[in-house]
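Reply to dn_fold:

You asked what the input looked like. This is it:
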Amino acid sequence: MSRCSWPAGGPATGALRRRARPIEVIGAPRVRPTLLVAILVACLSACRTTPRGSPLSPAAKSYLETVKAAFGGAWKPRVIDAASRNDPTGCLYSTRDRRTVLTFTVEGDGQISDIRVATSSGARYLDEVAVESIKSVRKLDPPPPEVMKGAPRQELPFAFTLRARDHAERCSRSGLPSISAAESPPSGTSSGR
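and this is what came back:
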């Protein structure tokens, strides 16, 4: 029995989605210190592609840390630039945490494909930045056998979270426009550019 206990259908089945937590990169933009209260936080949360309590091998842990570093390094400059263009005041989309969950396929040689938005952040530009960040990496180191589970490819989840500092009150006092969660424009999945 594998440590991940993935069903026979592989990680894309519903059973894994209920038990898995995506790898996550967390941050909040610091675009213009005078306009945004948010700061870029370089916190990377723990990866959970296994059921809670199931230990990862040292090789799998090391690999997943490498994946987080690669995607996080690609994401940080992109999200700062995108936030400065799409929400320069921080009052439109940055008044609450925004989390984009993607799935991607990794081949045995580390090649990345099939990048899709599984859960939108509610801000289309953040979803697009997340997809672009993974696309820019293109290829990872070959995954260890513990990650591949004997299959030629695996679908893995990955989450990008933009953390917001509490500046919703500041935005409402300033008279700057803001969009609440209920008013957020619908976000579609990013096209594969």
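Residues 1-20, 28-53, 176-193 have pLDDT under 50 and may be disordered.
Hope that clears it up.
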